[in-house]
Design goal:
Number of strands: 12
Number of helices: 12
Largest sheet: 6 strands, parallel
Shape: elongated
Mean pLDDT: 91
Order of helices and strands: HHHHEHEHEHEEHEHEHEHEEHEE
Oligomer: single chain
Strand order of the largest sheet: 2-1-3-4-5-11
Number of domains: 3
CATH architecture of the largest domain: 3-Layer(aba) Sandwich
Length: 331
């Protein structure tokens, strides 16, 4: 309503029809250059701006990309968002971010909002409660590309950008074995998630193959509060571990809280190995030995895949960011 009245005001001042004013602003060839100049000068003076929502409805085109993830309170997701925003800005897109809080109902509501806002494309890291990717895949049918990242569905029928999860867990297990550790507390994320299943299977297989006599106690705390409790229980038990493996940064935070509470020295009293985005391990002394799984690199790769889809590439593929060992002093 506001934008229509603005066009009407322009037409009244100039003594022209609304349609003539509209076509002049769009450089329509039927409008004389003299009229175009008059209309544009007045539009600038009146601070006229096109109604982007109305244009979107008319053209079915948008320059907004959506990102739906469990939470932004995470170093990994923060760096992923940063990379996507950097690339989006370079290519003339803006970014709309929503959090599912790991709740399916919130995820579905957010998806409906993205659809109503007709985003050009959507990046998704699914919630713990998500079993069926079909609601997301329906967007593909509407020519809105969806790129799943990090937490991805267990199906080949979608575009996915992932970390090399199996390699990351293998490298962590090999590091522990190389240091001749024999009592491992291995803390993983939620067992329902595909990312956890891949890392868990690879870690177990590596230990069984290279050091079958190594004792491993597994736990699935997901977040820092529970990982702290699980670590305290293990440290206070009769069979204390000599090394703790953390599947991610939030788990590592809880582990380090517990170690500090018990006033243990790293690596003299307890060793640590983690999978990490890379920042958190550098904040401790000694730095934490970790397998780097870089969220910024993942974001860059995800945008490249999205841009390819927006350019008309219909090929479905899964691409990976390589994992690498970063030596610290924690083991």
């Amino acid at each position: 309503m506001i934008q229509q009245s603005t066009l009407k005001q322009l037409s009244e001042v100039l003594g022209l029809s609304i349609s003539t004013v509209s076509r002049a602003l769009k450089d329509h060839p039927d409008i004389s250059e003299k009229t175009k100049i008059k209309v544009k000068e007045l539009a600038q003076a009146m601070e006229y701006e096109p109604n982007s929502y109305a244009v979107q409805l008319r053209t079915k085109n948008n320059n907004v990309l959506g990102i739906l993830l469990p939470t932004i309170n995470n170093f990994f997701y923060d760096s992923f968002i940063s990379a996507v925003e950097d690339e989006a800005r370079l290519h003339g897109y803006s970014v709309l971010i929503m959090q599912s809080m790991d709740k399916l109902q919130i995820e579905n509501s957010s998806l409906n909002l993205f659809r109503k806002n007709m985003v050009a494309g959507l990046f998704v890291s699914i919630s713990i409660e998500t079993d069926d990717p079909a609601p997301f895949l329906k967007l593909n049918e509407l020519k809105t590309p969806v790129i799943f990242f990090d937490r991805v569905p267990d199906t080949d029928a979608c575009n996915k950008v992932c970390l090399a999860d199996a390699d990351a867990a293998r490298l962590a297990a090999e590091t522990i074995i190389a240091k001749k550790k024999k009592k491992v507390l291995a803390l993983f994320g939620h067992p329902h998630l595909n990312i956890t299943k891949k890392r868990l299977a690879s870690f177990r297989e590596t230990v069984a193959r290279l050091s079958p006599d190594t004792q491993v106690a597994y736990s699935f705390p997901e977040q820092s509060a529970q990982s702290r409790l699980d670590t305290l229980a293990a440290l206070d038990g009769a069979d204390r571990p000599d090394v703790i493996f953390c599947m991610g940064d939030m788990i590592l935070i809880g582990v380090m809280y517990a170690i500090h509470e018990r006033r243990l020295r790293v690596p003299e009293d307890i060793a640590i190995v983690s999978i990490s985005n890379g920042l958190l391990p550098t904040l401790y002394d000694p730095k934490i030995t970790h397998i780097e799984t870089n969220g910024y690199k993942l974001g860059k790769l995800a945008f490249a895949q999205m841009h390819s889809c927006l350019q008309g590439n219909d090929q479905v593929e899964e691409v990976f960011v390589e994992s690498k060992l970063i030596e610290g002093g924690s083991i």
